[in-house]
């Protein structure tokens, strides 16, 4: 599967043969007046090289090569259905699908029309879907049979691949970099999940960091895969769309749960050369000392890796594991890159070319010591706004700095992660907001108050732990409350441990003091 290298080199943001310093010094964000991501990732390749492999589909066990021409035709069928439903520019289109050609085609179809795609996770339950569909105002969803059953209570128009009409041909809508294209919901670290709205320029904004994390992605023979779902920004814009844009075949082989044997099979059968592994997957591979031959690059993000993991990865994969950093609101802002500079254990890496990262104080001024990690306005992957939430958008910034909520410090030009300011729980690669779980548990008739925190765990980094005060005369079991959350939110975010207390630590205004609960959970784990 040789790349049409001339076109791929033209599309890449980082050229070969230059130092990191030279790449940063000479970097300029492209400022086109018109750009449409559907054209970038599909239509242009379908016109140039229709037989070029776009997606390597391994979902059925046997490898099926989906060309750019076939992906384009599938996206036109989705577009024909969307148009028949009256979808117009600016309308929101839900995509409730795991890794599959239809998932990619659905986003592409929405973007070509000037609509806004809304990725949705197949592990979401009723309440999680309800909050995102209700907030976004999506009234149509592309899904599969399982997803159609999940969506039946909402009264939306849904379609599966078998129900799609014949394709039509329409010109791509003229859009600019800041015209809305995709609405990706955060993990809900504080309050309900917020929708980060991104424009058509967001894909190019990801490229410097993505290319760094894969040792200058876009080399001949590259094949890209991640076990992370394409419903999250990490799967969608760290892997799928950059791969399609660069002409690097992307593997569709989502596993319901990470399985080492399946992972090794996928890598072998699809000749995978470039992988984004969530840290938990790496820990599972390390526990079994599972080796993967033939890799050219391994990236990881979501939580820091230690020196021991980096050393094992170097031996097991024959390459450095490049850690990268970002969040839904502004992604792939920093990365390690073994091809450009030494990887430093304990540090995330260096700013991707085009990104200005600062460590700022409470006033939004850069500081030399520990402070809040922030990204300066003008970054290519920065969100336009939180959907229908101007107050939260304003609170995300201090002057011209988007504040991530993480604490960090500079170390000889490397960004060292210190910790989080908010209460986000990082578990098995998922970022889980405690507020949404608390809200769910509070709807149970037996729960009076609840506090949810992360408890340290050697495999998952953290597990979700709930401290519950029950109502007088009620006695729900831990199993009952766990099932309550599983059925309403997501199977990955239920509390794996529940303790029942007489009272929770509260502020004078009646808010749960999660800091004390986190300290208690940490003590329990020692």
Automatic annotation (TrEMBL):
The keyword Ligase applies. One of its GO terms (molecular function) is ATP binding. Its EC number is 6.2.1.1. Residues 436-511 form the AMP-binding enzyme C-terminal domain. It is an enzyme of class 6 (ligase). Keywords: ATP-binding, Ligase, Nucleotide-binding. Pfam families: AMP-binding, AMP-binding_C. This is Acetyl-CoA synthetase. It comes from Salipiger abyssi. The lineage of its organism: Bacteria, Pseudomonadati, Pseudomonadota, Alphaproteobacteria, Rhodobacterales.
